[in-house]
Amino acid sequence: FQRLGVHFDEYSGESFYQEKSQEVLKMLEDKGLLQKTIKGTGIVDLSEKKDLSLFSTVMRSDGTSLYITRQVSLSVDLAAAIDRMNKYSWDTMIYVTDKSQSNHFQHLFQILKLMGYDWAERCQHVSFGLVQGMKTRRGEVIFLEDVLNEVRSRMLQNMASTKTTKEIEDPMETAEKVGLAALIIQDFRGLLSSDYQFSWDRALQSRGDTGVFLQYTHARLHSLEQMHGNEHQTDINVACLQEPDAISVLQHLLRYDEVLYRSSQDLQPKHIVSYLLTLSHLAAVAHKTLPVKGSAPDVAQARLSLFRAARLVLANGMKLLGITPVTQM
């Protein structure tokens, strides 16, 4: 998690809510929602006609909360949701798990509504699919740490085969950041709930729609700024940016807030990924056709400002996806 830049403010496992789950079962009973089957298990009727055509089991016949295979107990999740609302008065509660648990969360939210909690409408399940075909040199049983080590190792090899790597202060750290970008972009390119076929070769390509290409573009634009003095100018004559390639970059930059809003609404990072990849391709073309060196001073400053804006948005977008932009590659 540390390598991925992930931190948690609070940990609370199932055992923390075991006692509270008994209170929830009592609440369900008091509200007349808990029914007993012939076998003695506790269920909640979720059917519209109340004919038990759809129900959810919340209690074993011995009175303990149920542990569904590969899913946490419903009564524990009910207890956790209620406790978190009491503790944090949250605006939205998002559950992130694999898509096999979709029914579990649908039932959870339905039961909370039946219990009279209007805020159940603000609970959301974000599901993710399976990664297929991933292998490391250690075999087919995959641990995340092995994947992170493998991508860093492969990236180091790729960097060693290029001429520029010798100038990098810390090749290992750069390989780690670029490798992580490769993994994250490959993972976030499609719908989160879609399964996809993993390919090391595709993920680590330096050209094309990859995290490596994003990092390469960022490093290149950073280098351009360093070369021409990276002091931010305020008196830019934007009328100098008349070329189609400059206008394409400008128009794309204007769409950034719209893309962020869209991702915030459906919680799908693919909109940001697609936007950043297009921005990188447009910036790469503009970098070739709009030289800074040798141009008239006001044209050079306008172009430099355009490339700086593209780099800042690229860096900002990558950070949102959990990627640390590199300045050398």
From TrEMBL:
InterPro entries: Arg-tRNA-ligase, ArgRS_core, DALR_anticod-bd, Rossmann-like_a/b/a_fold, tRNAsynth_Ia_anticodon-bd. It catalyses: tRNA(Arg) + L-arginine + ATP = L-arginyl-tRNA(Arg) + AMP + diphosphate. Keywords: Aminoacyl-tRNA synthetase, ATP-binding, Ligase, Nucleotide-binding, Protein biosynthesis. GO terms for molecular function: arginine-tRNA ligase activity; ATP binding. Its EC number is 6.1.1.19. GO terms for biological process: arginyl-tRNA aminoacylation; mitochondrial translation. One of its GO terms (cellular component) is mitochondrion. Pfam families: DALR_1, tRNA-synt_1d. Belongs to the class-I aminoacyl-tRNA synthetase family. Catalyzes the attachment of arginine to tRNA(Arg) in a two-step reaction: arginine is first activated by ATP to form Arg-AMP and then transferred to the acceptor end of tRNA(Arg). PANTHER family: ARGININE--TRNA LIGASE, MITOCHONDRIAL-RELATED (PTHR11956:SF11), ARGINYL-TRNA SYNTHETASE (PTHR11956). This is Probable arginine--tRNA ligase, mitochondrial.
